[in-house]
Write a structure and sequence with these properties.
There is one protein chain. By secondary structure, the chain is mainly alpha-helical. It contains five helices and no strands. The radius of gyration is 20 Å and the shape is elongated. InterPro entries: DksA_N (IPR048489), DksA_RNA_pol-bd (IPR012784), DnaK_N (IPR037187), Znf_DskA_TraR (IPR000962), Znf_DskA_TraR_CS (IPR020458).
């Protein structure tokens, strides 16, 4: 990789944006940062919507009435897995839209539990994060205790 170039990963690749570089003394979640995350969230949402459309067309085009029960069962299982994946993505789209509302209302980037900054790098890794790493870790520990 050439020097000075950073590899885009995850949702940054969908939006075709570089990781955000903070300036010294820059205020957290200023207009520039909010615009950066809005771009990422909108691109991610659009990519997921395209996947939904592709699945719909794929299922319509590939639907066949196979005479062999094994072939029919294999196709139904494939469709079932695709639908389950799309359902998870549908829920993620709703979460992205909820996060975009937070960006619009200048409430983005702060922990819902304790109110501190979530952090630029964490938000770039998971733009829909609504808790800081400490609160999320604590919530996951509590969840494990309740289940196990």
């Amino acid at each position: 990789m050439p020097q000075g170039k950073t590899k885009k990963i995850g949702v940054l690749a969908y939006a075709n944006v570089e990781p955000y570089r903070e300036s010294a003394g820059e205020e957290y979640m200023n207009e520039k940062q909010l615009a950066h995350f809005k771009t990422i969230l909108e691109a991610w949402r659009n990519q997921l919507r395209e996947e939904v459309d592709r699945t719909l067309h794929h299922m319509q085009d590939e639907a066949a009435n196979f005479p062999d029960p094994v072939d029919r069962a294999a196709q139904e299982e494939e469709f079932s897995l695709e639908l389950r994946t799309r359902d998870r993505e549908r829920k993620l789209i709703k979460k992205i839209e909820k996060t975009l509302v937070k960006v619009q209302e200048d409430d983005f980037g702060f922990c819902d539990s304790c109110g501190i900054e979530i952090g630029i790098r964490r938000l770039e890794a998971r733009p829909t994060a609504d808790q800081c790493i400490d609160c999320k870790t604590l919530a996951e520990i509590k969840e494990k205790q309740m289940v196990g």
